[in-house]
Design brief:
about 230 residues, alpha+beta, Ribosomal Protein L22, Chain A, 5-stranded mixed sheet, 4-stranded antiparallel sheet, 6 helices, about 30% strand
């Protein structure tokens, strides 16, 4: 039997948070993040950026027992943002789609998280045929209705993006990696191996997390800021 050696913590966060949470997220941002936030053309996008990056700082700081404002991220080997020393043992990942944000942390092993909003009106058959391996494209296209197709498409896409975010690679060269019903996935660019798991998400969303290597890991999922948690194993 495999032994679980690592724990991935995932938080699902609504973009619509109480004013005091928004204020806290705003105050922990660094100057670069404030500049990036100000560059967004719509208040919605600016608000989402502040919540996502502020929550990442708050949750990473909590795990490190370090003030959120003190943390800094630098580009890693393949461009993926990594915490700078002395905090670099904690790996982080961030995703947002629709009205939700996902944050993930892991000690030592590179982590990637992705959340996807289901979009039944999207032409998932054409997109799957264009980007996915033939077996996965057939799986999406074989669904009996648009909602099921959207669900299958979002699940596969979230799994692919989680792997790519863990690797720090580019999305497009990796969309043809096979992720359906797999626990171990080989990333195409950069070439590397990851263990992947689906993450419980609210209705209308799919989410996944990937961790570098093949060793099993536990997953703890929480809703933030209310912190209701559930656990799983991958």
């Amino acid at each position: 039997m495999d032994v679980v050696t690592d724990l991935v913590r995932v938080w699902i966060i609504p973009c619509d948070v109480p004013p005091e949470i928004l204020a806290r997220c705003t105050e922990v941002l660094d100057d670069g993040e404030r500049t990036r936030a100000a560059a967004f053309l719509t208040a919605r996008d600016r608000h989402q950026f502040v919540i996502a990056h502020g929550a990442l700082r708050i949750l990473a700081g909590r795990g490190l027992n370090t003030p959120a404002e003190a943390l800094t991220w630098i580009p890693g080997e393949h461009g993926k943002p990594e915490l700078s020393p002395p905090w670099s043992d904690l790996r982080t990942s961030l995703s947002h789609s629709g009205s939700l944000i996902a944050v993930a942390t892991s000690a030592h092993r590179s982590v990637g998280v992705d959340i996807q909003h289901l979009m039944p009106a999207m032409d998932t058959i054409a997109l799957s045929a264009r980007f996915f391996p033939p077996d996965e494209a057939l799986y999406v296209g074989a669904a009996s209705d648009a909602c099921t197709r959207a669900d299958r498409f979002a699940r596969l896409w979230a799994r692919k993006e989680a792997v790519v975010k863990a690797a720090g690679g580019r999305l497009w060269p990796n969309l043809r990696i096979e992720v359906r019903d797999r626990q171990i996935v080989s990333c195409a660019e950069p070439a590397s191996t990851y263990r992947i798991a689906d993450v419980p998400a609210p209705p209308g969303f799919r989410a996944a997390v990937a961790l570098a290597g093949t060793v099993t890991f536990g997953v703890e999922v929480a809703r933030w800021p209310d912190e209701n948690t559930e656990s799983a194993m991958a």
